[in-house]
Amino acid sequence: MAEKIKVYLADDHQMLIEGMKAVIKTNDNFEVVGFSLNGMQLIEQVERAEADILVMDINMPEKDGIAVLKELSITKTPFKVIVLSSYDDLKLVKEVIKLGARGYLTKQSVGDSIIEALTEVHNGQEYFCNIMQEKILASFSQNNKKEDQSGLLPPIYLTDRELVIIKLIALEYSGKMISEKLFISTNTVETHRKNLLKKLNVKSSIGLVKYAIKNNLIHF
Q: Per the database record, which ranges form the HTH luxR-type domain (predicted)?
């Protein structure tokens, strides 16, 4: 049997801690190895717990999540961090990602999304709950799913994320610029680009640009 992925929880509400523990317990891949109710306690205990993933509230007494992330970034801890917050604020998302967080969950979504978030982050991906994904996409692109001049949708189905990435490629964003814009890694951007090339049967980014223009995904 494969070794379970160790999860550490930090939130100043015991009831939320217990709720997350109950959900995580339903999945055989994960186990909760400890929890803290404030930031100081978290710093003192999380490394000793040898956690693989830390799920951490951003608002905690004694030391808040931002301060904790800054301290963890200095000590270069081996575990991955998912931030948990009551706020669906893109500025906050950008700040915590810059400080090394790999995921962001709103407290409204945590019950439905915690297992998916843990799985994605453990597998090396970034994770944002549906609420934040929608806000990220809407923040800079309002026209990704508009119909073209003939009133038809693009002939090949693309996901919301693929539509955004093909549009940014067509607008000459570099892989690094796209990663910063969408809060994802450059490796994830490159994976999406390769998938788009294969799905649309084109050989280069120029082909992606032609597709975007032809299907009215960008407007000059």
A: 151-216
* CA distances, 116 to each of 60, 123, 172, 207 (Å): 24, 11, 32, 34
CATH number of the domain enclosing 79: 3.40.50.2300
pLDDT (average), residues 67-95: 87
Residues 69, 157: one domain? Answer: no
CA atoms within 13 A on the CB side of 39: 17
Looking at the structure, tell me whether residues 13 and 94 fall in a common domain.
yes
Q: Collect all residues with Cβ–Cβ distance below 8 Å to 179 and sequence separation of at least 6.
A: 185, 186, 188, 189
pLDDT at 172 exceeding the cut of 80: no
Per-residue pLDDT, 145: 46
Question: DSSP 3-state assignment of 85?
Answer: strand
Residue 64, Cα to own-chain centre: how many angstroms? 20
CB contact at 8 A, 69 and 92? no
Residues whose CB falls within 8 Å of the CB of residue 31, separated by 6 or more in sequence, listed in order: 4, 5, 6, 7, 24, 25
Q: pLDDT tier at 10 (50, 70, 90 boundaries)?
A: very high
pTM exceeding 0.85: no
82 and 184 inside one domain: no
